[in-house]
Amino acid sequence: MAELLRPYRVLLGARVRAQHSYRASFALDLVTSLLIGLVELAEVWVLYRAVDGIGGLDLTSALLVFGLADTAFSIADLLVGHVDTLPQYLRAGTFDVFCLRPQPLLAQLITSDISLRRLSRVGVGVTVLVVAVLANDVPLTPENILLLLLSLLTGSAICIGIFVAAAGAQFFLIDASELTSSRP
After folding, report:
1. CA–CA separation, 12 vs 18, rounded Å?
2. Would you say the pTM of this structure is higher than 0.85?
3. Range of 163's domain?
4. In b/e form, how buried is each residue of 9-35, taking b as 16+ CB within 10 angstroms?
5. Fewer beta carbons within 10 Å, N or C terminal of the chain?
6. Number of domains into which the chain is organized
7. Chain centre distance of CA 165
């Protein structure tokens, strides 16, 4: 199994090293991504400044939902979010290169790029999630921790499925890459 994953580890390692070679640009990308996550959090806060509750949720409950959804989406975006570049490969005629290689097509598309700047979005989601769990006085029992982890895992799997389905739809739709930009 380790031998099968070796080419992907080598490719991902090379891309990570390439992103780190321009440290100022990488830091700016991280800060920009962090600010986007904070703006989304501020939107929730602004809504709850005007009202006491929405749909039976107070601010701390809404932060828990936001933390779960944002973390799950950010993990999926980190792992497979760049498959929405498939239309560029199709238009340029370079998609055939992926088809000729002896690796699975989806695995090649997933490893074709990695954006470490998306790590800061995961950081925003995890931070909000931890604060919300503590603010809601959720007892940290093994069952609750398992539920939290399974929620993140299944939420990420759902978002990954949406990304992959939208990438597959690119063969039939014209420039519909924005389909994956809609958030859960």
Report:
1. 10
2. no
3. 2-181
4. eebeeebeeebeeeeeeeeebbeebbe
5. N
6. 1
7. 15
